[in-house]
Design brief:
By secondary structure, the chain is α+β, with helices and mostly antiparallel strands. It has seven helices and 19 strands. Helices cover 28% and strands 27% of the residues. Bound molecules: flavin-adenine dinucleotide.
Amino acid sequence: MTEDQKKKLTRLLEESTVQFDEPMDKHTTFRIGGNAECYVRVENVEELGALTDFCKREEIPFFFMGKGSNLLVSDNGISGVVATFGEKMCDITLHEDMIVAEAGATLSAVAGFALQKGLTGFEFAAGIPGSIGGAIRMNAGAYGGDMSQVVGWVRVLTPDGNIKTILGAHMEFGYRTSILKEIPYIVLACGIQLMPGDEKEIRLTMLELGARRREKQPLEYPSAGSTFKRPEGYFAGKLIEEAGCKGLSVGDAKVSEKHCGFVINEGEATAKDVQELIDQVRKKVYETSKVILEPEVIFVGD
Ligand SMILES: Cc1cc2nc3c(=O)[nH]c(=O)nc-3n(C[C@H](O)[C@H](O)[C@H](O)COP(=O)(O)OP(=O)(O)OC[C@H]3O[C@@H](n4cnc5c(N)ncnc54)[C@H](O)[C@@H]3O)c2cc1C
């Protein structure tokens, strides 16, 4: 970006905050990533529209992220603008029997809200550390539930600057994917359809699933969750263990000994370390089981 573009962009946004050369390791759960040339916390839809329009006109690369819990950001950083929602885009409200959540809200906050209202069906998401927007893009899921089962509608900003509502049934949800993989809509909000339930049971289920996560997953280390998608008919972690990759490391990036499906950052891992480790694991798994592992983690940056 030129100095002139930086000035114009700053002037364009009143409520949202703009930071230049912002280290992305502060904004990813992997604690990895070089600087974003420009990092914007967007606080309202009008400014998001103005920002995307500006980037399009000025031919500045634009990337929208959530909580950075499924991203591996390059050590060289990200050119152009990286935007995410700020604290004013996290509202959660109840409209009759539907929860309406703005895209910046975390899944745990929505799960807490559902619990408070005695609504069941969102317990699966309580421990997934992402935002509503990221969860819809990824069709995030766990323990038999996923977003496709509960999302009634999604409000998006289209690439040409319009706002439209898409029914859940038209979101092309699949395993860790949605229509957003093909079309760069930005999720603004969604309606989540749950069922009346027993508050005690909902709480118990959330606590049980949380305990299962803590027991099975290396939550004490930075990571981006499961590094690979589950190959049909297999478990990625089991294939990785069978390929002898348990504890395999490159620099500070390591295949977790607690759960082989997770690559963890033991301290100073770089994106290059993680990428190299992923390549090694994929090669070894293919050699032993002839299964091609596909990364679930999204690679971003230069
Ligand atoms: C410890 C740990 C455990 C995890 N467990 C699970 C699990 O059980 N199940 C599971 O599915 N995932 C899991 N994850 C992965 C991750 O939390 C999910 O994929 C989550 O949905 C990502 O949300 P996010 O807001 O962090 O998105 P990000 O990682 O920031 O972005 C992910 C993708 O979503 C897009 N995106 C983000 N916000 C928007 C928006 N508003 N509009 C359009 N696109 C958007 C980004 O462009 C990017 O392509 C885990 C991660 C960690 C670190």
